[in-house]
């Protein structure tokens, strides 16, 4: 495999191998850290490790190798997803301590006579801690929770610890599947981040998927939002169209006092074709930042055309805020604006073209219906007056993706960030978001807009990842 045509310019992706869930996101001693699930020998099927990237500006990233691998019995079949909790003043030098929590996956060898189904029998889910005082060197692993430490109502599907500090204690959320095949979240509390006791079990009022993965807590301006990835929701015309979904429940009070959520309030983070397992963290400036997995497990959508050396990427860092409707908005971190070149005006029904498929399109003050076409309608983003639609007019670039739409009673603004084989779409100040991969075949990047608007431009973007893999380790 040698085709680098679709190498990304400002999205994190491995030089080679498979990427999925973002893990361990944090800002630690002034540096941003992003880990992710990683299979170095893709397309061969293998276990999962944690790959590690760092940045000082959320734009330029360095590949720091693979610090967490399967090297103890309790994680021998995978270093699965988890989070970072930065403990202030807990390091030996009096500085901050990075605490990484993850699920060690163990799957027993299949034995037909034992009748293992790997849901109720045949696996272990171990919650494990690793620490670092410098973000480069990591401690030995400490196993904190095992199957016997989970409530009796749980199957063996318990994973993805989200850990944070609040009210003088350390808290952990775990995603779970119960014995009735209903999704749920477990809440544990700790005084030291090592010894844990169950505090509560959080369910929806009515069944809402059979498993809740990747739980997160978003706390902004005194409001709590519980984020989960429910598996098993049925496809509907305007929602729940990915293989598995990712979204959040606005809570009426604190997560610490919550035992039931209203499933009818569930809000999807992203309506696109390629989005799952987002993780949030709070940086040193107090911003809540989200990064998600821009990929899918669905076999009918390819993220690896012939010649690719790698599969999938992460979204750009998105800053979360609360909109006037009380729901969360997502917008690209403003640091990304530093990649912009000179603005190119977009005039109605007149195309512009640049050499690279890498641009930031901004249309503001939209009046009425219209569309934005990329590469002669290879991808079209259209507003009909009632819906915002994303469609592919070229099956070759689509990679199995189909049209998507969401009801929308108005469209005021649109921002579209294109990075060779990734597109992120933000509408109405980040209230509505789509993420999709695409695989353009045109030599030039052509953009044409038919919206009547107050302001419409495209900024060419630099390749911020050009040096990311210079010192990259294969492992």
Could you characterize what this model shows?
The protein is mostly beta strands. The chain folds into 2 domains: 17-334, 5 Propeller (Tachylectin-2, Chain A), CATH 2.115.10; 342-460, Jelly Rolls (Sandwich), CATH 2.60.120. The protein has one helix spanning 395-398; strands at 17-28, 31-39, 49-55, 61-63, 79-87, 97-107, 123-132, 142-145, 154-166, 169-178, 183-190, 197-204, 211-220, 223-231, 247-250, 260-261, 267-268, 276-282, 288-294, 310-311, 313-314, 318-322, 328-332, 344-345, 352-354, 358-364, 370-374, 379-383, 387-392, 404-407, 413-419, 422-427, 432-437, 445-449, 455-460. Strands 24-35-26-31-32-33 form a 6-stranded antiparallel β-sheet, with no helix packed on it. β13 and β14 form a beta hairpin. It is globular, with a radius of gyration of 22 Å. The mean pLDDT is 95.
Number of strands: 35
The amount of helix comes to: under 10%
| C-alpha termini separation | 18 Å
- Given as residue ranges, the uncertain stretches (5+ residues, pLDDT < 50) are none
CATH topology (level 3) name of the largest domain: Tachylectin-2, Chain A
Strand content: over 45%
Tally of contiguous helical segments: 1
List keywords for this structure.
Jelly Rolls, 475 residues, Tachylectin-2, Chain A, six-stranded antiparallel sheet, 1 helix, 2 domains, mainly beta
């Amino acid at each position: 495999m040698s085709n680098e045509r679709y190498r990304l310019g400002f999205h994190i992706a491995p030089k080679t191998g498979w990427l999925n869930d973002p893990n361990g996101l944090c800002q630690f001693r002034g540096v941003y850290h992003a880990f992710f699930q990683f299979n170095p020998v893709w397309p061969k099927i293998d276990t999962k490790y944690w790959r590690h990237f760092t940045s000082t500006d959320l734009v330029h990233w360095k590949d720091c190798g693979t610090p967490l691998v399967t090297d103890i019995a309790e994680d021998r079949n995978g270093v699965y997803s988890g989070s970072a909790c930065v403990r202030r003043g807990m390091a030996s030098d009096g500085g901050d301590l990075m605490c990484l929590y993850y699920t060690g996956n163990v799957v027993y060898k299949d034995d037909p006579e034992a009748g293992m189904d790997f849901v109720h029998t045949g696996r272990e889910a171990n919650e494990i801690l690793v620490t670092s005082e410098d973000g480069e060197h990591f401690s030995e692993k400490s196993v904190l929770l095992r199957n016997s430490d989970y409530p009796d109502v749980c199957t063996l599907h318990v994973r993805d610890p989200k850990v944070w500090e609040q009210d003088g204690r350390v808290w952990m959320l775990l995603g779970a599947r119960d014995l009735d095949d209903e999704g749920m979240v477990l809440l544990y509390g700790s005084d030291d981040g090592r010894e844990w006791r169950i505090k509560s079990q959080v369910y929806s009022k009515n069944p809402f998927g059979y498993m809740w993965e990747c739980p997160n807590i978003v706390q902004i301006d005194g409001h709590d939002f519980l984020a989960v990835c429910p598996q098993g929701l049925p496809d509907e015309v305007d929602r729940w169209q990915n293989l598995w979904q990712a979204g959040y429940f606005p809570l009426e009070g604190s997560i610490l006092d919550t035992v039931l959520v209203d499933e009818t309030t569930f809000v999807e983070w992203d309506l696109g074709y390629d989005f799952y397992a987002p993780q949030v963290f709070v940086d040193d400036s107090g911003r809540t930042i989200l990064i998600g997995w821009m990929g899918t497990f669905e076999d009918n959508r390819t993220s690896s055309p012939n010649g690719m050396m790698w599969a999938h990427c992460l979204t750009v860092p998105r800053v979360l805020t609360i909109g006037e409707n009380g729901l969360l908005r997502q917008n690209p971190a403003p640091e990304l604006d530093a990649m912009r070149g000179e603005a190119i005006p977009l005039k109605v029904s007149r195309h512009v073209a640049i050499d690279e498929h890498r641009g930031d399109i901004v249309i503001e003050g939209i009046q009425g219906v219209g569309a934005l076409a990329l590469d002669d309608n290879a991808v079209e983003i259209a507003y009909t007056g009632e819906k915002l639609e994303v469609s592919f007019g070229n099956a070759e670039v689509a990679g199995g993706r189909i049209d998507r739409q969401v009801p929308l009673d108005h469209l005021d603004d649109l921002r579209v960030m294109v990075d060779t084989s990734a597109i992120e779409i933000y509408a109405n100040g980040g209230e509505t978001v789509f993420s999709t991969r695409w695989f353009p075949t045109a030599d030039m990047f052509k953009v044409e807009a038919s919206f009547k608007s107050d302001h419409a431009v495209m900024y060419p973007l630099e390749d911020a990842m050009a040096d990311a893999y210079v010192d990259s380790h294969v492992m």
